[in-house]
Amino acid sequence: MKKIIVPVDFSIQSEYAMKAACSLAKKHEAEILALHMPELNRALISSSEGFHPEQTVFLIKLAEKRFNNFLNKPYTQGITITPIVKHFKVFSEVNEVADKHDADLIIMGSHGAEGFKEIFVGSNTEKVVRTADVPVGIIKDEIPDFAIERFVFACDFKEENLDAYSKAKAFADLLNANIELVYINTPGDSFLSTLDAYGKINRFFDKAGNGQEMDIYNDYTVEQGILNFAEGTEADLIGIPTHGRKGLAHFFRGSIGEDIANHAKLPVVTFKI
């Protein structure tokens, strides 16, 4: 683990993300790239008509001062943090920053979900998840000492998930974490016997070119099975695949990926298929 990107908007959620990133950076001697994108009026910074450069400079300097104050915290001490200020707010650009700086991980803060309040509908977190080629960690609560030792990765072991699985395994190796793979078996048309389930999984590993111990966990829904399995194994992190620009709603079926990211008490990390 060499570089972690943390998008910062000065919210309490981005502070939670920064604290989690600092915990990982200290453990793995990584650098943090703190990315801030000020909300500037596009016409103000690009239009020649009625252009007031002194006003633009003032707004940029104000944003940079606020950014520096945000980073001047006890938990950031002793960590190499490189501030990056981009004067736009197009969240697909986060992936370009990650690619340019060869980052290993993006960590973002996000709200949880209670009742009708769902985080991924039109959210900036979703935009980053859909476009990022590197893993994206989603932090919703303050974690005093964030460490990833037990990492649960759940998928349906279809061939389309081979790349996501490879990324998840490389991610676990990077953090020296124990990866625990799980297939959730549910009642109804999708139910598989133990023999059929292991046959499907073995065919997946044959194509992956490596084997891995894994579990078959029975539950009423895939979402609840993943959450229950992760809680039962005392995991530090849940990993799920995503179809990128198609959104998390294509993970397994319906909106299971969204539901997991919304309702999981644990941090979630996504891997693009």
TrEMBL record:
Residue ranges annotated for the UspA domain, each copy included: 1-140, 149-271
Family in the record: Belongs to the universal stress protein A family.
Entry-linked PANTHER family: STRESS RESPONSE PROTEIN NHAX, UNIVERSAL STRESS PROTEIN UP12
Name of this chain's protein: Universal stress protein
Organism expressing this protein natively: Aggregatimonas sangjinii
Record lineage: Bacteria, Pseudomonadati, Bacteroidota, Flavobacteriia, Flavobacteriales
